[in-house]
Design a protein that fits this description.
The protein is α+β, with helices and mostly antiparallel strands. It has two domains: 262 residues, no CATH class; 161 residues, no CATH class. Strands 7, 8, 9, 10, 11, 12, 13, 14, 15, 16 and 17 form an eleven-stranded antiparallel β-sheet that branches. Strands 18-21-19-20 form a four-stranded mixed β-sheet. A two-stranded parallel ribbon has the order 1-2. Strand 8 and strand 9 form a beta hairpin. 37% of the residues are buried.
Length: 490
């Protein structure tokens, strides 16, 4: 079977005595040790800050990371879009590293929940984990005014907000939560993360095995019948020091669930089968990392759109033993979504109590990725339903026609008042047919109806896309604090 969906016999699942051993291993092994390289985390105070002229004790290794790069959301989005023009995945991966896009942070995105009462009056969040509610000034102004207008036109309206953009902007990757954490004189979230992490290939990586219901209570419905523990992998990619107490860091979080294949196989056989498969693959890069006490090698392979990454304690060769492998990752790549790893799997060889080699197989937990949503000009918003308990439901018959038409008209009116241009509102073809029932030809000729375009997969929500800039010099950017004179497009 082709990668990345490796056959079950490439994993060594718990079975009989191994089941008890692996369970106890996950529960009682220190989180930082599971699947980690033998390279220890940096000792606090072992290094000194050189960036920005600072001279203070080390901060868990944050001072060793690449510096954050500040830019406008439009420029960050444009750079990610430029990567799509490269159809060859090997070249695209090299460009991604050279452009340092994983270190960029958009400075002009604003979290929609800062609208305060204007947000809670009409809107609710789809989830409390992904935090993809960061909007451009244009989107912030539009939704602020739309909230005011809709609350005047409908009694107790309720709109669920899905993805807009992630903190710092950029490509939203499959299964990844991106955040920007900041230390101050009272709290130190960035340093707390760093002190539990270890350096590896230019980043700080921290792993914990957790019970999903305990660690993520806001996602109770999702994990209510979940039987697997979660491996939470936190990667700190870059940092910025304003002062020793004012530190910012860009953080990527991935969550993996433990796979349960049916057959049992030794780790040595697993590695032997994997090596045979990789003989026909193209090796696209090989890096050496000496940031810890032991040298690590990271080798990446590509075959069409299938990707494999091997991290080992020795340089890969035909005679490389399985016990030299730290971890293996497999995924599918899509040139239209640069940097996104679909269906990612993480394989971790571990030594059993009897000296045997087993393999833990983790699958990346699903979180949607997007081709758009990079600069805060795109937003996923729910329709208004007859049953508010089913927001983002695919049941088209639950859509309240009259209320949703009012919602669409409100978005168009709010755009006019704030000087924002709506390029398109995308809905599913079935939704458009549902909404136009009973409408006259005159009603379907209205400007707000002409904004609607059709795209499959938008039966649970509408996708609104704005043009950059404000077209009206006299429009007020409701609630955003922006100056339309400065933002007006020529």
């Amino acid at each position: 079977m082709a990668f990345p969906t490796l056959p079950a016999d490439l994993c060594s699942p718990p079975g009989a005595l191994h089941a008890l051993f692996l369970g106890l291993l996950i529960l009682f092994t220190p989180a930082s040790a599971i699947g980690q390289s033998v390279a220890p985390r940096l000792e606090e105070g072992s290094t000194r800050i050189q960036r920005s002229g600072l001279d203070a004790p080390g901060h868990g290794g944050l001072e060793t990371l690449p510096a954050l790069q500040w830019s406008k959301a439009s420029r960050v989005s444009a750079q990610w879009d430029a990567l799509k023009e490269e159809p060859r995945l090997d070249k695209q991966l090299r460009q991604l590293k050279r452009m340092r896009l994983r270190h960029y942070v958009a400075t002009d995105l604003k979290r929609l929940t800062t609208l305060g009462s204007d947000f809670s009056r009409v809107f609710q969040r789809r989830d409390h984990y992904r935090d993809r509610l960061h909007a451009s000034p244009e989107m912030y102004a539009l939704l602020s005014r739309a909230s005011e207008l809709l609350s005047e036109r409908l009694p107790h309206p309720r709109i669920t907000v899905g993805d807009i953009a992630q903190a710092g902007g950029g490509q939203i990757a499959h299964g990844v939560r991106q955040t920007i954490v900041r230390d101050n004189s009272l709290t130190t979230p960035a340093q707390d993360l760093a002190r539990g992490a270890h350096p590896q290939f230019g980043a700080l990586i921290r792993r914990e095995v957790v019970d999903p219901l305990t660690a993520f209570p806001s996602e109770f419905r999702r994990f209510e019948e979940f039987e697997s523990p979660l491996l939470v992998e936190t990667t700190i990619t870059s940092s910025h020091f304003e002062s020793p107490r004012d530190i910012q860091a860009r953080v990527e979080t991935r969550r993996f669930w433990l796979d349960d294949p049916e057959e049992e196989v030794s780790g040595s056989r697993w590695w032997s089968q994997l090596q045979k498969r990789l003989k026909s693959w193209k090796r696209i890069s090989q890096e050496r990392d000496t940031s810890g006490k032991e040298t690590l090698w990271r080798t990446r392979y590509l075959r069409r759109r299938q990707f494999v990454e091997v991290v080992s304690r020795k340089k890969p060769s035909k005679r490389l033993a399985a016990d030299a492998i730290v971890e293996v990752r497999t995924a599918s790549l899509n040139p239209r979504k640069p940097g996104v790893r679909l269906n990612e799997r993480l394989y971790q060889p571990i030594v059993g109590w009897d000296g045997s080699l087993d393999v833990l197989c983790w699958r990346l937990l699903y979180e949607a990725s997007h081709i758009s949503h990079k600069g805060g000009l795109d937003a996923d918003l729910s329709y208004i339903l007859t049953d508010v308990g089913h927001h983002f439901s695919r049941r088209v018959h639950l859509i309240d026609r009259e209320a949703t038409r009012t919602w669409l008209k409100t978005l168009a009116d709010a755009a006019m008042e704030t000087g924002v241009t709506i390029e398109k509102i995308l809905v599913d073809p079935r939704v458009k047919r549902h909404l136009q029932r009973g409408m006259t030809t005159k009603e379907r000729s209205k400007p707000w109806w002409k904004l609607l375009g059709v795209a499959n997969g938008h039966d649970s929500h509408l996708h609104i896309r704005l043009a950059p800039g404000f077209t009206s010099n006299v429009a007020e950017c409701a609630g955003s604090g922006c100056d339309p004179q400065e933002n007006a497009t020529p």
